[in-house]
């Protein structure tokens, strides 16, 4: 397969930073990927696996090989009266997969509509939105080890999923390439409507159905989040912090309108966007980088001329403000290169 040299990544990251990789390859199948990993370039260079480029912040050129799997098949592995087991290639655009599932009348992913990125990245980050996390529907994650080229298939329980986290961000970070993900989807529908404005929007669209939930969430997300083709961004830049209930209760006592979500008997999740907004960052700029005026969780390449360093500096200022005001550290969701 073709290995490109001195390759521009401007169209392969949603911040649209004009950075380059020393080498670039886009395998279209597991066999092509296996062949690529036997190449001397792959054996001797640093490797970066790139999905949709929607969760990465380039601060410089990448001095190595960027591999972007474009394995884009979707197939039904098995099915019965209540369940469909589906395998999707790593290169399938995530929202295209959600649209496919809804068209098939399969439930489970509709609340994850319009999340940017590809299927291969969804287990790494354990993507989630509107009361749903992808860990709840993943059965297996398939891929290969970078060092040996050997294939693997990890069951859900072995992926160590937690909030915006997985084994692929911890023990297996930079050690694997995901080739496909297997999902368990439901033919019998149980709707998740309690989060945010979803129920009100679904009711306005005519009531609960997979298509109405998808359309409602698309509408909500589009009203809050900027189009990356207009303002380069990666969606939510920060994780919602998980803190002890004592800290959450202290914040709630001081700020009655603070969004607090109990996630266990001992811990609660806070809304990072609300905290950033309380620090008056919404709409503010630092050089060519800015906080989106409608959603404080989103940092944007406002002028189209921002650098990764400018976005990183803005993020550091925001983190410092939140810590000083709330004594809570917020973490980046994005991967910094």
From TrEMBL:
Reaction(s) catalysed (UniProt annotation): UDP-N-acetyl-alpha-D-muramate + NADP(+) = UDP-N-acetyl-3-O-(1-carboxyvinyl)-alpha-D-glucosamine + NADPH + H(+)
Name the UniProt record assigns to this protein: UDP-N-acetylenolpyruvoylglucosamine reductase
HAMAP family: MurB
FAD-binding PCMH-type domain location: 17-188
Example of a GO cellular component annotation carried by this entry: cytosol
Cofactor field: FAD
Protein localization: Cytoplasm
EC numbers for this chain: 1.3.1.98
Pathway linked to the protein: Cell wall biogenesis; peptidoglycan biosynthesis
UniProt keyword NADP present: yes
The keyword NADP appears for this protein: yes
Single Gene Ontology MF annotation: FAD binding
Enzyme class: oxidoreductase
Protein source organism: Plebeiibacterium marinum
Keyword list, A-Z: Cell cycle, Cell division, Cell shape, Cell wall biogenesis/degradation, Cytoplasm, FAD, Flavoprotein, NADP, Oxidoreductase, Peptidoglycan synthesis
Main location: cytoplasm
Organism superkingdom: Bacteria
GO BP, one annotated term: peptidoglycan biosynthetic process
InterPro entries named in the record: FAD-bd_PCMH, FAD-bd_PCMH-like_sf, FAD-bd_PCMH_sub1, FAD-bd_PCMH_sub2, MurB, MurB_C, MurB_C_sf, Oxid_FAD_bind_N
Assigned protein family: Belongs to the MurB family.
Annotated catalytic residues: 164, 236, 333
């Amino acid at each position: 397969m073709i290995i490109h040299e001195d390759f521009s990544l401007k169209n392969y990251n949603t911040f649209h930073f004009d950075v380059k990789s020393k080498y670039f390859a886009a395998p279209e199948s597991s066999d092509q990927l296996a062949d690529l990993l036997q190449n001397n370039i792959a054996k001797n260079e640093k490797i970066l696996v790139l999905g949709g480029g929607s969760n990465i912040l380039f601060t410089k050129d990448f001095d190595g090989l960027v591999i972007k799997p474009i394995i884009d098949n979707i197939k039904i592995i098995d099915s019965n009266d209540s369940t469909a087991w589906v395998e999707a290639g790593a290169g399938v655009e995530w929202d295209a997969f959600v649209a496919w599932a809804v068209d098939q009348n399969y439930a489970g992913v509709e609340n994850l509509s319009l999340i940017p990125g590809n299927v291969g990245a969804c287990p790494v980050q354990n993507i989630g939105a509107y009361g749903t996390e992808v860990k709840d529907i993943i059965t297996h994650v398939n891929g290969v080890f970078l060092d040996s080229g050997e294939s693997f298939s990890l069951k859900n329980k072995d992926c160590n999923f937690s909030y915006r986290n997985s084994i692929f961000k911890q023990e297996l970070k930079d050690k694997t390439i995901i080739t496909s993900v297997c999902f368990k989807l439901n033919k019998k529908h149980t709707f998740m409507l309690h989060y945010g404005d979803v129920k009100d929007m679904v009711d306005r669209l005519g009531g609960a159905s997979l298509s109405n939930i998808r359309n409602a969430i698309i509408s909500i997300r589009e009203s809050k989040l900027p189009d990356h083709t207009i303002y380069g961004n990666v969606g939510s830049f920060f994780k919602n912090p998980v803190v002890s209930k004592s800290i959450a209760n202290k914040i709630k006592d001081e700020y009655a309108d603070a969004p607090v979500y109990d996630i266990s008997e001992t811990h609660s999740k806070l809304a990072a966007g609300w905290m950033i907004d309380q620090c008056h960052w919404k709409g503010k700029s630092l050089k060519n980088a800015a906080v989106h005026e409608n959603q404080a969780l989103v940092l944007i390449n406002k002028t189209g001329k921002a650098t990764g360093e400018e976005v990183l500096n803005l993020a550091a200022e925001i983190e410092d403000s939140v810590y000083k005001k709330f004594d809570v550290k917020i973490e980046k969701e994005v991967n910094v290169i």
